[in-house]
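Agenda item 2: zinc ion complex prediction
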Amino acid sequence: MKLILKNGIVYDPANGINGERMDICIKDGKIVEKVRFAKVIDVSNKLVMPAGFDIHSHIAGGKVNVGRLLRPEDSLRRVVARRNGLRSGSGYSVPSVHLIGYDYARLGYTTVITPAMPPLLSRHTHHELNEIPMIDKAAFPLYDGNWFVMKYISEEKYEELKAYVAWLLWATKGYSVKITNPGGTEAWGWRKNVHDLDEEVPYFGVTPKEIITSLVDVCNDLNLPHSVHLHCNCLGEPGNYEITIKTLQLVRHKDFNGRQSLHVTHLQFHSYGGDSWKTFESKADEVAKEVNKNDNVIIDTGNVIFGDTTTMTADAPMEYDLYLLTGLKWVNKDVELETAPGVTPYIYSPKVLVNAIQWAVGLELALLIKPEKVILTTDSPNGGIFTNYPKVIAWLMSKKARDDMLAKVHKSTEHRTVLPSIDKEYDFYEIAMVTRTNPAKSAGMPNKGHLGVGADADIAVYDINPLEFDPKDYEKLEKALSNAYLTIKGGEIIVKEGEIVKVTHGRTFWVDAMGKIDRSLIEKDLDYYFKRYYSVSLSNYVIGENELRRSERICVN
Amino acid sequence: MRELILKLKEKPDICLEVEGILPNVIAEKSLEEIENLPIQYGNKRVKLSEFFDAYVEKSETPRIIFDGDMSRVKRIGWKLDGGEIVVRGNAGMYLGAFMREGKIVVEGDVGHFSALNMSGGTIVINGNAGNYLCASYRGEWRGMSGGTVIVKGNVGKELGSYMRGGKIVVEGTADEFAGVCMRGGIVVINRAKARLGAGMIGGAIVVNEVEELLPGFLEEGEEENPEIEGEKFEGRFKVFSGDHAERKAKGKIYVRL
Ligand SMILES: [Zn+2]
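Presented output:
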């Protein structure tokens, strides 16, 4: 299909294009210089950006499904009937599989990474990803409480560790290394957690610091497209900003060619001061300072949206602590030899001071950190479901939107945060960076997140004139961003004026680094661990490439 | 004001669902428009007139009368927001579920899940009710929050689960787990079977007779003519607090002596 998007107002930070009126030419699913005999679509005075890229959103796998099972009442909150060839579905904070794809497409997003796949549950995750329509996707397998990882680190067998990391990516068809509460999820098996980078994990004798730095080195040595994707220790705890800053400092001198050495995720949940819930306060400014100084780090925000949501992380001790606070239903799960996830509902209330501070912290981080290092997420659905991104964008682009919200939240918020004193307002160029350019760059997908020649023709057009945008009119912005005027995926129009017009199935990206390692180094250990400990056999554990609906293998060398 | 009489033509072989057939909806509509209102028949949308003969009459209040055996008609008064519904016969599942305002009177029995998550209004059931009367929706920990339900007959299991407010009166027998996980409100029962108030942390249950009480309930003494949740009760009661299997449980069970 050949297309020309005519006269749109284009924001493409990767190519330095800042609100220029120009045409975008598309041919065979790619952006091209010129195209002849193409269908021309007039998008005069409309906002044109690369399609959105969500680097951290829980859209598939064990936790998401447990969330659905745990919350039938969430299903009742949103019921969508079958129509126009679209499947029916239900669920507000944990929507059913097809709705996830439709919702992202309507938002103008076409690439999404599910960030916490327990390796043992990767088959389930991929089969679910296969069914999510519209978007390209990838999954980060979890390495945090992994017995192989901790064994090789404690025995200082670096080459074996490298081999195992690459092997597990291949075996699970994963994209990069995710670490959640390093050491803490294994300690949870003994009813413990870790609260310091130097605290030892029971029976393994390794520390969170060793797990993080070893895996950062491995990812860099293997030249993986994405770095380590880290959910720090002590999520959600008062005073956790200190361990967060110490963690960021671990990679200050770990330079890597062309990308960050560490992606720190949902930073909002890790930037708190105080020593109890009573003295809870924002330390976003301190954390932002360290991020700005540190060339090897990129972050995503994990903004909070007020309302009822379902939290789900591979951080079981944290989910248990959350349950103790709320008394609501909860689930913990032990994934043998690997990790321990948990799920529980949560309601962020503007009248609860802690929640209001969390809301402010997410925005402070985005406003205080250089936009080149920021990626916008809500850690969906943990901070709120992803369909609320336009709300977050409105808060970033409009001081008035923030002030209007501040007027509705707990009064002490202004004393515990610096948000009221921040005047910065994002422009469309910066919004395009934090929702398109940066996530694609951080993920290491060179054909995503920009509109240069050769890029995938994944484009979003919104019915708003960015040159005439008045930050006071933020509700209009929110509306325009919630329903894309056009979403183009791989050169095909999939959404038109907020309605899905074509159902497509995207690719699943995974990374093959097997060429860089010597598998024989770990063969014996694999054999032994699977025979001795796992409840599945090694041959049943490995996901075949043919199990992916549309496999996109990224070979590294 | 007007009254709509809906006579069931014949008992359907699969259940009908009449969500949306409400007094406030029909108030401004012509008979023809009413006859064309959609209802659900299995997986098909059909017109109201396919299964019901409709008549309109003058009335003091907006009112719908379902005439006939409605035991295969589900969701009568679903999300009712005012006006009155009368069922001259039995009613199917989900009667008055999510109801906010208004009144429903049923001459016969009602099916399971009736008055689910109700927040206001009144329901009178002259026959028996199924399981989960006044319960919370599956998985929901924020159950019934207001309104009054009176049952002349017996009720099934898990009456008023996760109830937070409002009042339920059962003149017959309540099956097991009545008032399970209650947080507030009051449930008055003539005879209750076992596991009464299991997991309750608030609100009150008043019974004339109970099969047995769970070990999580502690005897607090006796009271004469007590005031319970703002209402005076005559007679002597033994008072229990619980269910102490839960943290900070403040529920009360009053057993008449
Ligand atoms: Zn997450």
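Discussion summary: The longest helix of chain B spans residues 31-35.
Owner for follow-up: CH.
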